[in-house]
Amino acid sequence: MADYDNDNIFAKLLRGEIPSIRVYEDEHAVAIMDVMPQAPGHVLVIPRAPSRNLLDADPAVLAKTMPVVQKLARAVKAAFDADGVYIGQFNEQAAGQTVYHLHFHVVPRHENMPMKRHGDGMEDTAVLKANAEKILAALKA
Question: What pTM value is reported for the model?
């Protein structure tokens, strides 16, 4: 397995070098709106601790991150009146990983509505901000 790259896009995002629309953060993880969402409300949960993916992550980091994934899954399900929630996590190129910093996709799902392909295009920032407001309200409820 390759070494962790401190200049990957999520490392830069966590350092504040790249803007993001944050919907949650604590000392262990950050949740942001995915700029190429597969469905409205698609968020990414990113641990602050550096690791390429699940394969090299410290189990203590996973123990602190998964409750955040759960919290965001509940919030996006409520905010978008979803029938379910898809959680995705990729490990290495062969599995579809494109950013080599551990992260979890949290995507609200509705019956009979296919997910868009990831990478099909950037969402309008105003739409992302409006969706973030829905999630923030659900987190406060």
Answer: 0.96
CATH of residue 121: 3.30.428.10
Is residue 98 domain-resident? Answer: yes
Q: Catalytic annotation on 42? A: no
Q: What is the pLDDT along the chain (141 residues), one digit of tens a residue?
A: 688 999 999 999 999 999 999 999 999 999 999 999 999 999 999 999 999 999 999 999 999 999 999 999 999 999 999 999 999 999 999 999 999 999 999 999 999 999 998 878 899 999 999 999 999 999 999
Tell me which residue range forms the domain holding 20: 9-140
* The total number of structural domains that make up the chain: 1
Q: Which of 28, 42, 101, 103 is catalytic?
A: 103
Does residue 1 sit within a domain? no
The whole-angstrom separation of Cα 12 and Cα 135 is 24
Q: Are 65 and 120 in contact (CB under 8 A)?
A: no
